[in-house]
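Thread: assembly with ligand

MN 10:42: here's the input set. Chains plus the small molecule as SMILES. Want everything predicted jointly, not piecewise.
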Amino acid sequence: MAKMMYRDAVRLTIAEEMERNESVVVLGEDVVGGMGTDGGPEAIGGIWSTSTGLFDKFGPNRVIDTPISESAIVGAAAGLALSGKRPVAELMFADFIGVSLDQIWNQIGKFRYMFGGKTRCPAIIRMAYGGGYNAAAQHSQCVHQILTGMAGLKIVMPSTPEDVRGLLRTALRGDDPVMFLEHKALYAVEGEVPDGDWTIPFAHARQVTSGEDVTVIATGLMVGIAEAAAEAAAENGIGVDLIDLRTTSPLDEEAILDSVEVTGRLVIVDEAPPRCSLATDLAALVANKAFSSLKAPIEMVTAPHTPVPFASELEQAYLPSPDDVEAAVRKTLAYR
Amino acid sequence: MAKMMYRDAVRLTIAEEMERNESVVVLGEDVVGGMGTDGGPEAIGGIWSTSTGLFDKFGPNRVIDTPISESAIVGAAAGLALSGKRPVAELMFADFIGVSLDQIWNQIGKFRYMFGGKTRCPAIIRMAYGGGYNAAAQHSQCVHQILTGMAGLKIVMPSTPEDVRGLLRTALRGDDPVMFLEHKALYAVEGEVPDGDWTIPFAHARQVTSGEDVTVIATGLMVGIAEAAAEAAAENGIGVDLIDLRTTSPLDEEAILDSVEVTGRLVIVDEAPPRCSLATDLAALVANKAFSSLKAPIEMVTAPHTPVPFASELEQAYLPSPDDVEAAVRKTLAYR
Amino acid sequence: MQLSRDELIQAYRKMATIRAFEERLHDIIATGEVAGFTHLYCGQEAVAVGVCEHLAIEDKIVSTHRGHGHCLAKGCDVTGMMKEIWGSREGLCKGKGGSMHIADIDKGMLGANGIVGAGAPIAVGAAMSCKLDGEGRVAITFSGDGACNQGTTFEAMNMAVVTKAPCIFVFENNHYSEHTGFEYAVGTQKDIASRAEAFGMKVWRADGCDFFAVHDTMREILEYVRAGNGPAAVEFDTERFYGHFEGDPQNYRGEGELDRIRDTRDCLKIFRQKVTEAGLLDEAVIDELNEAAEADVDAAVEASRAADRPTAEDVLTDVYVEY
Amino acid sequence: MQLSRDELIQAYRKMATIRAFEERLHDIIATGEVAGFTHLYCGQEAVAVGVCEHLAIEDKIVSTHRGHGHCLAKGCDVTGMMKEIWGSREGLCKGKGGSMHIADIDKGMLGANGIVGAGAPIAVGAAMSCKLDGEGRVAITFSGDGACNQGTTFEAMNMAVVTKAPCIFVFENNHYSEHTGFEYAVGTQKDIASRAEAFGMKVWRADGCDFFAVHDTMREILEYVRAGNGPAAVEFDTERFYGHFEGDPQNYRGEGELDRIRDTRDCLKIFRQKVTEAGLLDEAVIDELNEAAEADVDAAVEASRAADRPTAEDVLTDVYVEY
Ligand SMILES: Cc1ncc(C[n+]2csc(CCOP(=O)(O)OP(=O)(O)O)c2C)c(N)n1
Ligand SMILES: Cc1ncc(C[n+]2csc(CCOP(=O)(O)OP(=O)(O)O)c2C)c(N)n1
Ligand SMILES: [Mg+2]
Ligand SMILES: [Mg+2]
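BT 11:07: finished. Tokens for the full assembly:
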């Protein structure tokens, strides 16, 4: 067991896999940083410090600073992966899928299918997502709702340092493209991480709290928000079965359906806006496959249908809070 | 009343609005076509023939051929709209939002909010979407599931020449950005269109067939598919309340909820793949707001979680068919 | 130097205002009183002001993540901006946009932009609009040396040439994009202007730390573009005094680099030296202008502290004109 | 002409195969037997073959929507390709990709591509991989004159220069992007090569209708790139004989333009004339090669007609390695 920050879990895992497998290469803007230097303290290792030290250890051929050209970054990852390498590309902010979506959606995600199953494209695209930093409309967004619907991609949303370790290892050892979504408000969060070389398979949800009254589903930063609500509910004698999905594609349908079968009540917490979202995706799944278990309307706690605002008061109101989740839990329980 | 094709409804409406309002300008790849000529027969007016004749009539300042630079096309539309013009930009295929999403999502859709409500950005982005033409994975996609979740945008999906007329007029006279999604398999479809200067407001669904047994919701090409299924069902004495949403954002929630209140059974037909889709969006709406009316699991007829395949046999299997819809209708009716 | 005394005073006053605004923000952000990603423009004032002094309200500009200077130079209200950065409901954008999204359409300021490279195509559209209006107006896009590697910037340059849009691409080469050196990230390792030239534009180059070089160059460019010759580009060599964003320790700078540029490349010092040596303005006038700028900023900060905060209901407004 | 008789025969045979393949498709598509968006490469054969004759299987290419020629030149199986275009389950991509998405990774053919400009960044990645392997391999991206206006193409060029990736940007200037003329859409109105040069690359230019010009130029380029000098670019002036896609009536062509290019710019005719005049190959040999190519295509068509069709279950496979 070691205590480490979420960001360190990212960095350590990449470093270890680079050691294990020389086909792993890292690229992105400022992943070295301080160019013109020979590494050392000037090499900041990315603005999230998720690649600090990699350049000094693995050199310029495997840790590659790029210009501000996200399409070319993701495209280069695609070409590296088609050529048998395992690129780990960083989009500094998830919002930048806006300038690189074609390479993610129409290239990386589709090669295997378009080419009749005759290739593998194990490109990992890491990106920092989410709100809470007064970074406003273009630097605070969730993108899992956009990416999850895209066939060919796998979408990972770790909520703890431990999950970063286990899921990133799986991503780096698998043969499919993975969008690895790191919440920027989690980077400095610390957690215990078991030693050893273990992995967490995809589509393997984590039960965060167990209870028989309401099922709550969350991902990423929302897991902590939901957990706070679950704890408050527990004090009022309400048992929350809190599920952290860990990956949204593939999806652990079984964990969801099994839980709803017991509770009959569902609250979904999603940091993204409400339309065509993961929240609606899960609600639809349950309304289709666990309808007979349902005892109450499905509640969704999401951001509103607006861009992410700048001012703290606005952003706090925008983001789902433990109070919002608790209210939804109470609402579903009140339904008879 | 005049009979006209869907593509002509697009072209005529743009021409009329250009006449009415000199701030309307058209831009896109080959919207003139045959460059180097002075118009006339060489000017093809777009590969969908949706701008044929505009160049001859309105000249090079208002009908602008562009290089293959979709980000710059949409970006230019953004700049034109912020400057008080009403650009109608064409993305030749909806799939090309992949190379222009930032300008759609992070710029056009967000200006008004980010700028505190102090601007209008009435940019219309037209795009040809959908399958059925053996155009394979990168030229056959639906994008409404991606765009509908993006706050600030309005999403229009006309299914008939009449609706093209009424909705495009509304788009061109409104003050918000509109993504106007034209299904390529509908371009050659003919329909009766009333004369005169009438419009169809957004969030105003159309009841295609009425019935009290099952609610079916569809958009675009799927309306015809669902209608065929509804007719077949009617022969078996099943009454289908078929709703054509016309716009997915804003959404006519009332039409949906009112119908489900009556039928208690819902089938959603969506040409897009299943995850984080419009189908799930509508299912979630109903599972939340009309739960007490629901008598059966919500059924969704969608494309599978795969890219669009090339071969006819594959594409036919990929796309929702009247048989698929009928099966879903029967399934929901069989549930007790 | 073809400027009148009043024009000189106005130009310096604007530069001084930007400087005072940014230095104050630097101090305040360090205390934690103001939140968000803030990119300070200090050091580059001569570019924003040298460009915008030529513009009318009807000319448009599109800015970047480092937009305060452009906004102030184009005439945005100092207090309105400060309130916006403070996240106040009284801010220029009601606290919804913040530092990276300040806009003032009525002033021809079409927005700062958090997405590197996104401004250039928007400016081309604004320029197309100017062309349609036929009144000799232009649109200007500011881009950094880093932004010049983004595909949108290239597309925009070609599109402007093809459509003969009166668009001016102003590249501010401050030698760094975040922590990465210009010589590393721009393949030519030479300049940005020759890339712009390869798209078929006439280009200029000038010292961006010398207000007069900027101003003279822009006069030429504007004459050329307003005459209907299509777009143009210019590269200004300039310097960024603070970190990429507030909080950046700037480890990547060479030894003594910051001291050197502060010493020899400060556009305010250079301006002062030139006008006093030429006997155009007294030291005392310059000092007064600095003080006036500080006073403006004092007032703006005070007003921002006292200003209304937004409420939860405000989240939902201003998404659509009608929905 | 430093080529042996065998090499000449092989090169012509490939060009003839592409020609026969495309002309046959043209006829068949007109009957409606084959569906989909098909873009024929006829007229440009000298480029694909002149480039690929230098390559080993370990060298990679990335192609475009007009990809049949590149595929065949890089060694994709004629019948496998025809079956793919036919939408057969036995096709190179099991009928899932079709004309615009043919790939054969084992042959170093990383895919045709339906998105204009998408191939260039992918090729840079493949070139980075070659550089990592350190065995002197290269990656080549083919782009049209239209594709050279897409932001991704520009980003890729700069990225290749910055990372010193052994990537070769082959621009096939056939004067049209769909219905739009090169002189209109490319701002410089001059060429593509000088834009590439402005990104910091060494560039070449040659006649793309002369196999020998292409082949000689590529020899130089490959020497330069394999030696570790980073990327390079080349512009080949070439001609497209058929419409942009099948069904395009080509109204935009000048009067007599098609007859003229068919007459004077046919790379097969030019090859034939050069080798026969130089006494390197007989007319009879050339005729035989043409016949052999036709026979291959006959066989491919026959096999495609008889080949297995995909079934509904096939839709769901090949999305992931494991899900
Ligand atoms: C598309 C995109 N990529 C990356 C970023 C992150 N980012 C913000 S500013 C910046 C550097 C910009 O450099 P430059 O254009 O030289 O402007 P400067 O900061 O020097 O003013 C980067 C990489 C972004 N905001 N948008
Ligand atoms: C991003 C994108 N935009 C537009 C298209 C539609 N399109 C397909 S080919 C083509 C023209 C390409 O011209 P060029 O690059 O010169 O290649 P050529 O067709 O001449 O071989 C266009 C506009 C596309 N496929 N992808
Ligand atoms: Mg810079
Ligand atoms: Mg071409």
